[in-house]
Design goal:
three-stranded antiparallel beta sheet, alpha+beta, single chain
């Protein structure tokens, strides 16, 4: 009798269960995505003034300086901030 083929889930599990010597060496991790102010405003529902006031108060992650006149926020930090606000509800 013929054995059934493994499902995609089983194939994925077997790929992650490899021994350390058979797995490739880990490369440098990819940095998170940086998002600009309009997207931060959209995601948080806050306006520019409220965002900068929260940064100054230390209740919101600070932006990363991209150049002399440009900043962005780490997407992961904004997502964590949103999750913390939701959990505090």
């Amino acid at each position: 009798m013929h054995a059934p083929e493994p499902s995609p889930k089983q194939l994925a599990q077997s790929a992650t269960n490899q021994t350390p010597e058979s797995s490739p060496t880990p490369g440098p991790s990819r940095p998170g995505k940086l998002i600009r102010l309009p997207l931060v405003e959209d995601r948080t529902g806050l306006g520019k003034s409220s965002i900068y006031a929260a940064v100054k108060a230390g209740t919101m992650p600070a932006p990363v300086r991209l150049s002399a006149r440009a900043v962005a926020w780490r997407e992961e930090e904004i997502d964590q901030w949103i999750a913390a606000r939701t959990a505090a509800r």
